[in-house]
Design brief:
The protein has 26 helices and four strands. It has about 575 residues and is mainly alpha-helical. It is globular, with a radius of gyration of 27 Å.
Length: about 575
């Protein structure tokens, strides 16, 4: 009886399979008015390709991904844009923008690899071995050992000839070439270790032939990476505290700004940051005077830093500040805060090691608190205590929790979740920074000490624009960025080093640090257009903005307005033309 019942279920399931799937189609004809099915298919297919093709510097990987992106650009060109609803048109524009950007990134990365090919001229046979494993080709131990030995000889030669490659066409080679080549050698070595582990022990003949050549080659690659770092990049690989990154240059920075729909040049953005800095300086001077320090803002800031709570009491402070921020926004009917969101955040303490990169809070569903542990040195303990005092924390707890990142994470899982593929720091960090601005305007700081603490962070956001853009324009070195944060913002030096290390080596995009203040200014501009004009209430405005998910803010502006849209839409929105500081 069960067998008959199972057969009936199977037959019934056959009849509900979409015809497009049975015919080998893509099954994407659900609605001509929306883009969501296309976006979900693209995302799933991209994940599959990236899972399959992992070999660094692989032409096979590059060509397959280029083919994939070009295919999707051809595909969406056939979509009738005028038949899409407003959300569908916004999604179309975002999707096309993403495809063009990512395709450009692929080609740019490929070009950068070609520019350092002479430093890695041994690599093709190694990449071939790695690709053979990826393509499930039989691996013969004796042949593989021969390739490994030849690679050893070629790497020895590459190491001895590095000094002759310090110039390219008569000009000194960029140290960025050395940084990238050294990183690529580490990538290849990591893939080599995975390659060897796949076969070793499972294939006795492979292990017999390849064990010694592999061990030699693995050491060769480590030594070559260090030699490139020293000879070409001028960086001692043993210096673990050295802040090392890859500035992307003016052309790539301009491409990133186009992708993020920011119609300003890097130089214009630095000017905007300097303007906001001037406002912060004036407010900080007023707070210093109120505290009895005259115009000595540094003395006022040092006074506030020393108002830290004793070890063990920081979690209580964080909970109180979090609850106060929620009460503040709810009592003024500024924003919808779902009860489950208020109920569900957690707190953890940050490890000393992680504090070297993130000296302050991190947030989302969990707020991760940076505060000293008993194993830290006395100097490090004091820096952590002073950098996380209650008045500095007053601007960061609500940034990380509610109405900031915890609320964002909660809402983005429930509204337009497929738009996560468009996630941008200008919305993610800009939203949280915008609330720092708005709460300041609404008298959230209760004292001059609170104002000093909140202004410290606002100055820091200005500084992030200046040092991060100038770093990628190669106008500032990492050490100069650290000095700038210490002298201009008042950071503890260890904390400043951690901030720059996070920016340069933390895996963030080149515009991530600039996105805090700039994204905040974008939303602040929208608030002026739609709330202060009387078109919307603060509650309506904030609920719409957060529910659009993490998309470029120019497209949220398009959603709020009746601005005409086209498949080739490019924003000209100059969101920072007015002074966005408090009046």
């Amino acid at each position: 009886m069960r067998t008959v019942f199972a057969c009936l279920i199977l037959v019934s399931l056959v009849f509900v399979i979409p015809t497009a799937i049975l015919a080998g189609g893509d099954g994407l004809s659900e609605s001509p008015r929306e883009m969501r099915p296309h976006l979900e298919r693209f995302s799933a297919d991209l994940d599959t390709l990236q899972f399959k093709y992992r070999v660094p510097m692989s032409s096979q990987r590059h060509d397959r991904l280029v083919e994939f992106y070009e295919g999707w650009l051809d595909r969406i060109a056939k979509i009738d844009f005028s038949a899409l609803n407003r959300d569908g048109q916004i999604d179309f524009i975002l999707f096309k923008n993403l495809l063009v950007h990512d395709l450009g990134q692929l080609r740019q990365e490929h070009a950068k690899d070609r520019a350092i090919a002479d430093l890695l001229d041994f690599s093709e046979p190694l990449i071939g071995l790695l690709e053979d494993r990826e393509n499930l080709k039989p691996m013969e131990g004796e042949k593989a050992a021969r390739v490994l030995h030849e690679l050893h000889l070629n790497i020895e030669k590459a190491t001895t000839t590095l000094a002759s490659k310090q110039e390219v066409e008569g000009e000194a080679r960029s140290r960025t070439d050395g940084i990238r080549a050294s990183r690529r050698v580490r990538d290849l070595n990591r893939s080599l270790r995975q390659w060897y582990a796949y076969y070793a022990g499972y294939d006795p003949l492979f292990t017999w032939w390849c064990k010694k050549p592999y061990e030699t080659l693995e050491m060769d690659l480590r030594e070559l990476g260090d030699a490139i770092s020293t000879t070409i990049a001028g960086i001692d690989p043993k210096d673990q505290d050295k802040i090392v990154g890859e500035p992307i240059g003016a052309e790539a920075l301009a491409a990133e700004l186009r992708f993020e729909m920011i119609p300003y040049s890097p130089e214009e953005l630095v000017e905007i940051a300097e303007r906001e800095f001037a406002w912060c300086d004036a407010q900080m001077a007023a707070a210093a005077k109120e505290l009895g320090f005259g115009d000595d803002w540094r003395a006022a800031q040092e006074h506030v830093k020393d108002l830290y709570v004793p070890p063990g009491q920081q979690p209580d402070l964080i909970r109180e500040l979090a609850e106060e921020a929620v009460d503040f926004v709810e009592s003024r009917n500024l924003l919808t805060v779902p009860p489950l969101c208020k109920e569900s955040w957690r707190m953890e303490m940050m490890s000393p090691e992680r504090q070297k990169v993130s000296p302050y809070f991190l947030g989302g569903p969990t707020i991760i608190v940076s505060y000293p542990t008993d194993e830290m040195s006395h100097a490090d303990k004091l820096m952590s205590l002073r950098g996380n005092n209650p008045h500095f924390s007053r601007a960061t707890v609500h940034h990380e929790l509610i109405p900031g990142h915890h609320l964002q994470a909660f809402v983005t899982k429930r509204f337009y979740p497929y738009r996560q593929m468009f996630r941008t720091p200008f919305w993610i960090e800009g939203w949280a920074l915008y609330w720092e601005m708005l709460l300041w305007d609404l008298d959230f700081p209760r004292s001059a000490e609170d104002r000093v603490g909140m202004l410290f962070w606002r100055k820091h956001r200005c500084a992030r624009i200046i040092f991060s853009l100038n770093y990628h324009l190669e106008k500032m070195t990492p050490d100069e960025c650290v000095d700038f944060l210490v002298e201009r913002v008042g950071h503890e030096r260890n904390n400043a080093e951690a901030e720059v290390r996070r920016s340069v080596m933390g895996g963030y995009g080149p515009l991530y640090q600039a996105a805090y203040m700039l994204g905040g200014l974008q939303i602040r501009s929208l608030y002026g257009d739609f709330v202060q004009s009387g078109t919307m209430s603060p509650l309506e405005f904030h609920d719409i903005v957060i529910r659009q998910n993490a998309i470029p803010i120019a497209m949220i502006r398009a959603r709020l307005s009746s601005e005409p849209l086209s498949p080739d839409f490019r924003t000209q929105w100059r969101f920072a033309e007015k002074n966005n500081g408090s009046d």
